[in-house]
Amino acid sequence: MGSSAFALALVLALAACVTPAERKCLLSGSWRSDTGCRMVVSVLSKDGRFSGSYLPGPAADNSEILTSPLEGSQQDARLVPHPTFSFIVHWQLRDSDTTRTTAFLGQCYTGTNGEETLHALWLLREAADSPAEDWKATRVGTSIFTRIK
Question: What DSSP string describes 75-92?
């Protein structure tokens, strides 16, 4: 057996020894939320930063919302098995003066079956016309994302 074939066999054997729960959870890739929203995250930079795009799903029932940019960061997955993350979506709206921003904060989990899920809390903020209307400008919710394969 040549040295290349031996090295390949060794890598495959070592990879088989890693259980799904030991695999690191990374945000890069495509995700779908429990409400049908779709998120695409770029490759993480060395310092954990990423960018991407977010598109609301059918639950949003709002054709004025366009694919919108997102930016965020993830905790170093080499240091912890279930890294935390945060990202901001600045909504792009068709023909609207309203501004909206959503902040997501969560944690990435890898189950015993190897499936990754993102559990997130979000705050959606719309612009208020006055301090008297401030009370109704923020919404709070949760989302669970699964990787699109």
Answer: --TTT-SS-EEEEEEE-E
Q: Phi/psi of residue 22, each to 5°?
A: -85, -10
Cβ neighbours of residue 129 closer than 8 Å, sequence gap 6 or more: none
Residues of the chain with pLDDT under 70: 1-23, 58-63
* pLDDT for the residue 78: 84
CB 100 within 8 A of CB 125: yes
Distance between CA 139 and CA 22 in Å, rounded?
A: 35
CA dihedral 105, 109, 115, 120 (to 10 degrees): -20
CB burial of residue 3 (10 Å; 0-12, 13-18, 19+)? exposed
What global pTM score does this model have?
Answer: 0.79
Which residue matches tokens 């080499």? 78
Q: Which candidate, 99, 46, 100, 42, places its Cα nearest to that of 71?
A: 42
How many of the other CB atoms lie within 10 Å of CB of 112?
A: 8
Tell me the backbone φ, ψ of residue 20, rounded to 5 degrees: -55, -35
